From TrEMBL:
Keywords assigned: Coiled coil
Originating organism: Flavobacterium fryxellicola
UniProt keyword Coiled coil, yes or no: yes
Domain of life: Bacteria
Annotated protein name in UniProt: PAS domain-containing protein
Coiled coil (residue ranges): 38-76
InterPro entries with a match to the protein in the record: PAS-like_dom_sf (IPR035965)
Length: 154
């Protein structure tokens, strides 16, 4: 079942429950309200419905703006002139940009879930491991300088 079908089913269930609650409450109130009070309630409901429609419109605009921002920053990330890598605390690559895959001379899809440490030279592996541990433990910006093992692209 797709997301749209799930949402539609969910909305139908909510509407059904609302109808049931409305019927239960209707019998209590309808006999106690005057015609003027009923008209006031109808007016309030109509105003509230318009408010909800306006809020929906604002939410749709905000959603569109968010989607545009996501696309913009995804493109900035993907096409940045330097390699960006997002790593787990164990050094596994979970995200990288195109420059990152070019830097490692490997297809981007093959690098996902691989260990970044495989590309770090033995003489700087300790520096990289210390950096990784410190970055995740301190939850702050860290930096280090390492040497990468790269295949000759010639």
């Amino acid at each position: 079942m797709g997301n749209i079908e799930k949402k539609t089913d969910s909305l139908l269930v909510i509407r059904q429950k609302a109808e049931e609650l409305h019927l239960m409450k209707e019998s209590k109130f309808s006999s106690q309200l005057s015609e003027v009070e009923i008209l006031k309630l109808i007016h309030e409901l109509e105003v509230h419905q318009i408010e909800l429609e306006m809020q929906k419109e604002q939410l749709m605009l905000a959603k569109d703006a968010a989607e545009n921002a996501i696309q913009k920053y995804t493109e900035l990330y993907d096409f940045a002139p330097v390699g960006y890598f997002t790593l787990t605390n164990s050094g596994s690559i979970i995200e990288l940009n195109l420059s990152g895959s070019q830097l490692l001379h490997e297809d981007r899809s093959k690098l996902i879930r691989s260990q970044f440490g495989f590309f770090v030279s033995d003489d700087t592996k300790a520096v990289f491991n210390k950096f990784l541990d410190s970055a995740f433990r301190a939850h702050k910006k860290e930096c280090c300088e390492i040497n990468l093992l790269l295949e000759d692209s010639t």
